[in-house]
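User: Can you predict the 3D structure for this chain?
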Amino acid sequence: MQFIDLNKQYAKISSEIDQAIFDTLKAGQFIQGPSVKELESKLSKYVGAECISCANGTDAIYIALRALGVQAGDEVLVPSFTWVSTAEVVKLLNAIPVFVEVDSSFNMDPTHASTLINDKTKGIIAVSMFGTCADLLSLKKLTHENDIFLIEDAAQSFGAMHNNHMSCSIADISTTSFFPAKPLGCYGDGGAIFSNNANLLGLCDAISKHGQQGRYNYVTVGMNSRLDTIQAAILLEKLKIFEEEVFRKNEIASLYMKHFSSNSHISCPIIPVKENRSVWAQYTLTLQIDDVINKRKKVMEDLKVRGIPTALYYPAPLHLQSPYRTLQEIKLPITEKISNSVLSLPMHAYLSDDEVGFIAENVIQVLKDNH
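Assistant: Here is the predicted structure, written as structure tokens:
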């Protein structure tokens, strides 16, 4: 059993993927070939915001911050419960990441964010965690009232919905990642930037291409961050089955919930309803057991023996990591509690109902044995 089974996905569309790669090799346009522009057009139509591609999701956030004018000393609000890229790019610009508490959805708490805004605050990066959008409309209202920007880090939420709006269509700039394990992933690194602000997106495009707007016309200091044509061709094929995969993952999330809902040792992730949708980048439980840090390790070991892979996202909050510590002690009790108790289970569109049942039954038994 695989945590995320890319081999089964490839088996489903192997002939299409192979043909797309062959066609790209035959055409010989490996950088900025026609598949790149076709992909950007289709992603734009899917999301409802204009799109440019780039080399990876980390570059996407960095480029967005550059386009929004973040400078040394500016403060940018970010969650501490996230992958390091979100805060890393802020530090790379010599700006200051200000860490915000999360709520039960694993996403940034807008109420806590509102208490941290001051004259130095330039904007907010909200991570849409584990496939579910942050409360983007509340955060957008907050940023509008304070004349600061909102970036959605949608590395895990491409295809999700928030109040009938697609992820990547709400914030001033949104970014995503096409790392292989993401909801829409290629077979290498890749990323994209979305915005309905033509000037901002044009500047992002220039920054990603050495600061050029037109050949040898340099309008800013840029970088080299381009999605290669082979990866774009692969993504075009995967995009064709993307909605089918999202539908199946939501079925699996409901099956997990059915198995776990009455278990006192487990808190299940929230399943969005009505005009909201998760794409389930991860299926993450919160364990309700004593001595959870030590017992969680034993639970993972016992599940591995039973053939069930698990993972921790994220066992150490960023505000407690040495590169991001400040002289002033930061206390984020909810974030710290969540980090100590989360456990992610296999989640991909190619799990069978029987496999989900097998995973759930063993998780329940192992937790009982270790309680």
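The mean pLDDT is 96. The first strand starts at residue 50 and ends at 54.
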